[in-house]
Amino acid sequence: MSLASEIHEQPAVLERLLREQAAAARDVARAVRRRDIDWVLIAARGSSDNAALYAKYLWGWHNRLPVAMAAPSLFTLYGTPPRLRGALVVGISQSGQSPDIVSVVEEGRRQGALTLAITNDPASPLAAATELLFDTATGPERAIAATKTYTAQLLAIAMLATALSEDRRAAAELARAPELVGAALALDSTIAEAAAGYREMTRCVVLGRGFNYATAYEWSLKLEELTYVVAEPYSSADFRHGPLAMAGPGFPVLAAVPAGAVHDDAMALLSLLVAERGVDLVAISDRPEPLALARTPLPLPADLPEWLSPLAAIVPGQLFSYHLARAMGLDTEAPRGLAKVTQTW
Q1: Least enclosed by CB within 10 Å: which of 91, 143, 172, 199?
Q2: Has this prediction a pTM greater than 0.85?
């Protein structure tokens, strides 16, 4: 199975996940409610760490839960784990193999915290270390660059949010996720042609904010894994605090700017970057303003709920990264120096 086929498999993967794991989401939600959880600590690496950024925004917004990102080296190399009273400790990992992620949930369990694994391998060390398990049931992912496992993690996070809130309207919106991702995949040939125009690119910035801060990080990671371009991700707010100085004529700025609470603020920055700095803008959006501003507009499906937009918004980012690597003559199936499972301590 190739990277391209796994990208295009995503609607089917998400539809299966919604159908087969709804009961598991409700079971986790009941356990969380019984324990009266005050906050969440998430341990993850790589693409899973980017999915955790989505959880930070979604569980904070939808469930009013403070979410912190773990520093695994405190648990392993420094041996000084923080106090985890009242926490739900979550490990997110497609393989469930990395010892430092496992160590965080093991310590959480030792301290009496409720622990949860979100993983694609229910027989993994991570799954064995936790009380609760959410199997993303993605099936084997052969390509080194994560695509379908990433969107499955996003959907798992969204399923847990709606199960915990018991919000029927949100659940109805969530059921549209496979359709929204399928619509984004329809851009494939358009993106292939557009990406070829960036084959000489060696560096860029990737912007996103709110729910799509995760998209900025994941798009950046896909570019670095597949094309070896130096791609720096930023919140559109943080970009104003210093990094703005690097933007000049022709500098590539890639941005995920769907409709929603952060759209107008992001548009103010992008308008400045294009009008005053002359940047080369690639914009993923369901709104006409960013698309009209961009040299390379990548439209998203209409009527996209902001809280679900990262599921659809990353798909043009995956396709752009894939087709750019192909235009550069690079091997998308075997990026240099990388393996499918990475273990850190």
Answers
A1: 172
A2: yes
Is the distance from CB of 232 to CB of 243 less than 8 angstroms? yes
DSSP 115: E
Burial of 85 (0-12, 13-18, 19+ CB in 10 A): exposed
**207 pLDDT above the threshold of 70:** yes
Q: Which sign, positive or negative, has the C-alpha torsion 19, 21, 24, 26? A: negative
Residue 156 has a CB neighbour count (10 Å cut-off) of 27
Mean pLDDT of 145-164: 96
Please give the domain boundaries of the chain with CATH numbers for all domains.
3-175 (3.40.50.10490), 187-327 (3.40.50.10490)
How does DSSP classify residue 342? Answer: -
Q: How far is CA 159 from the centre of its chain?
A: 15
Task: Decide: residue 312, CB within 10 A, 0-12 exposed, 13-18 middle, 19+ buried.
Answer: buried
Could you give the C-alpha distances from 80 to 84, 115, 276, in angstroms and in order?
12, 19, 48
Which of 112, 100, 53, 54 shows the shortest CA–CA distance to 76?
A: 100
Distance CA 262, CA 245 (A): 22
The contacts found for 261-265 with CB under 8 angstroms, 24 or more apart, are: 261/210, 261/306, 262/209, 262/210, 262/212, 262/236, 263/287, 265/209, 265/236, 265/237
Taking 50 as the threshold, does the pLDDT of residue 340 lie above it?
no
First-residue to last-residue Cα distance in the chain: 30
Of 253, 297, 299, nearest in space to 276 by CA:
253
Distances (CA, A) of 308 to 7, 65, 152: 18, 18, 12
Q: How many helices (H) and strands (E) does the chain have?
A: 15, 10
Q: Yes or no: say if 258 and 285 are a contact pair by the CB < 8 Å rule.
A: yes
In sequence order, the 6+-apart residues with CB closer than 8 A to the CB of 103 are: 72, 75, 76
Enumerate the β-bridge partners of residue 206: 233, 254
